[in-house]
Structures are given as C-alpha cells and as structure tokens.
C-alpha cells in the first residue's frame, strides 16, 4: 500500500514529503477496525510536540483525519460492523498514513458518519469541529448573550468556531486579513432561519490601521468581549517582523478587550505574561486557556467525552449547522504538493484528498 510520509533529515531543518510503499496490514486485532479510506484531510504536523512525547521516526505518517468504510472488525469490537461508514482522527503514534488505501484503527478513535454527509465534508470537518468544541464548550462556554471574538474567522477553524458560537446564541465578532476573507464572511449565513450574516461585525486588519481594541469595545458598549479565540499573538514588538506577524494582535491588546470574567483561549504555546498583564487579568477575574486539541488523543482518560464530540460534530454537519471551508477535492497524486502548502501555513482552505 502506498501512503504519504514526512521524512526529516538529521539536522531537523529541512523536511520532505515522500510516497512510500508499505506492507499489507496485519490481521485485524481484537479492538481494531480495518477501514477503507475514502477521503483524508491534511493538517499541520507539530514536530515539536511529537519530539516531546518521544515519537521519533524516520518517516512520519501524513494525514490523520479520515473518512471511510469498515471492511473488517476484530473479535471484541462492539460499536461497528462491516460496511459501516465511519470518520475519525488517527492517533499520534499511528504507523499508517491516512492516505493509505486501508488503515487499521482502534474503535475508540472512530465515530459513525451520517449517510447524507459526504466523505470530503466528514474528513475536512472532524478536526476543526473537535477544536471548536474544545474551545467553546470545555475551555469556555458560549451561551446566548455572550460575545465571542474569533480571530481570522475565514480560516477553516475560524469558520467552524463562528458557526458553533452563533448556533449557541452568542454574538460573533471576527477579524479578517484580506478582501477575499471579508467577502467570504459576509456571505456566511445560517442554513436555516433568517438569512442574516453569522458575524455581527467584521474587523478589517488588512493594512493594520484598524484598532482592534477600540472596535471591540465599541461593539460591546465598552463592556469587552466574553470569549476570545486567537489565531496567534505577538508577544513583543520587533522591527524586523514579517508582515504576517505584524498583523497579529499584541497580547496586551487582547487582555485589554476582555470583559470581566472573560475567557482568552489561545493557540500560542509560548505565551508569556508579564506582571502587569497578570495583574490586569486578576482585576478582571479573567482566565487564559491553551487550546491543544491533541490532548484528547494524548490521554484516554476522557475517551467518552471525545467520542461524544465526534458524534456531535457529525450531527451538526448533517443538519447544516457546520459548513466547512473546503478546497476542491484533491487527487492523491497532488497530495505531496498540498501537504507542503499546509506545513508552510499557505493553505487558506482545508485541503482534503479524495481516494
């Protein structure tokens, strides 16, 4: 079987993606399911995280969000049977690439795919849906009357986060970094009910002239934002920053626009808070949470909650609440080029390989 793998050289600086032929899968074990992959979404590989949890391989499998059909089940599998349509995220230590024709997966990493949901939508939504639920249900709680700021709302994750927050009755504010992003968010409306934009206010950060803090305080009547989902922050101001870094908000700006009792959910793993920042958070009774969706796979302590999230993501996809920001279907022979774009953060839409 041919799959896509990430080869890292000894210096750790340059990486290449290669197709490798692997031996046929072993016989299905007790709690494992053999799945024929129909679609696989590509996501950024956190090599630093992999090295920290001691996953060192010459060839790292690429593609973990899969959707497919069950071919065979182990003797102790209870949730699935042959011909079931499933979706899931392969574990970090998976030996197989999700771009292989057939993969072997433990049943606790899979959920049923609704019949009306396409393979591409299922694979392309499962990770962003998991991330949005983690941010807006477990690290914070979006409810009617709350205001949610989603940074870079036109990204694949931002799109799902906006849809989940609005579905729960929250008022959504979002930032954009291009005219195309603005047009996309303006077209984003509920699939049912009144056809009004999901985003109450779009803040244009294209040229860096718009004051994020001032805009958010104006929109909230000076009370501040209840929940903030960032897409990266600037820790310090540097003269030689690249343009993409200059467009990111400064950490002090984010803290300034938080409401009393607000929640800042960050994806900045190297976040450092100075004493004045901590003092401001203390006075507001606000919290900072780190969004790492891999935590569900790093520990199986809350496996039941994880599976409930996967099922609920599929239910919302089936009912039209979630409408992912997907690129056109990509054939397998173009997977290498697409993955290079994803790893460089150059893809604005979710890349999904059709097998």
From TrEMBL:
InterPro entries hit by this protein: CRYZL1, ER, GroES-like_sf, NAD(P)-bd_dom_sf
Highest taxon above the source species: Eukaryota
Enoyl reductase (ER) domain mapped to chain residues: 12-353
One cellular-component annotation, GO: early endosome
GO molecular function terms attached to this record: identical protein binding; oxidoreductase activity
Protein name (database record): Crystallin zeta like 1
Organism: Podarcis muralis (Wall lizard)
């Amino acid at each position: 079987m041919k799959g896509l793998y990430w080869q890292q050289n000894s210096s750790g600086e340059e990486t290449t993606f290669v197709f490798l032929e692997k031996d046929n899968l072993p016989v299905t074990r007790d709690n494992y399911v053999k799945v024929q992959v129909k679609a696989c979404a590509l996501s950024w590989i956190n090599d630093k995280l992999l090295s920290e949890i001691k996953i060192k391989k010459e060839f790292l499998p690429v593609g973990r969000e899969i959707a497919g059909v069950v071919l065979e089940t182990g003797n102790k599998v209870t949730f699935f049977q042959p011909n079931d349509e499933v979706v899931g995220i392969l574990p970090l230590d998976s030996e197989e690439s999700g771009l292989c024709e057939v993969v072997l997966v433990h049943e606790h990493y899979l959920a049923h795919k609704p019949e009306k949901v396409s393979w591409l939508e299922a694979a392309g939504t499962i990770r962003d849906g998991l991330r949005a639920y983690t941010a807006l249900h477990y690290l914070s709680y979006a409810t009617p009357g709350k205001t949610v700021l989603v940074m870079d709302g036109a990204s694949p994750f931002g799109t799902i986060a906006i849809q989940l927050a609005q579905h729960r009755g929250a008022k959504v504010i979002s930032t954009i970094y291009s005219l195309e992003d603005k047009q996309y968010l303006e077209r984003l409306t509920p699939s049912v009910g009144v056809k009004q934009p999901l985003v109450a206010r779009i803040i244009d950060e294209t040229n860096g002239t718009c004051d994020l803090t001032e805009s958010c305080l104006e929109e909230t009547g000076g009370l501040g934002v209840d929940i903030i989902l960032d897409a990266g922050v600037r820790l310090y101001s540097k003269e030689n920053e690249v343009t993409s870094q200059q467009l990111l908000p400064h950490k002090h700006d984010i803290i300034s626009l938080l409401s009393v009792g607000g929640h800042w959910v960050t994806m900045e793993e190297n976040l450092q808070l100075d004493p004045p920042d901590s003092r401001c958070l203390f006075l507001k009774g606000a919290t900072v949470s780190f969004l790492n969706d891999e935590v569900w796979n790093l520990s199986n302590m809350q496996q039941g909650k994880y599976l409930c999230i996967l099922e609920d993501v599929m239910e919302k996809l089936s009912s039209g609440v979630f409408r992912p920001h997907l690129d056109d279907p990509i054939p397998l022979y173009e997977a290498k080029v697409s993955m290079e774009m994803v790893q460089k953060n150059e893809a604005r839409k979710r890349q999904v390989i059709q097998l």
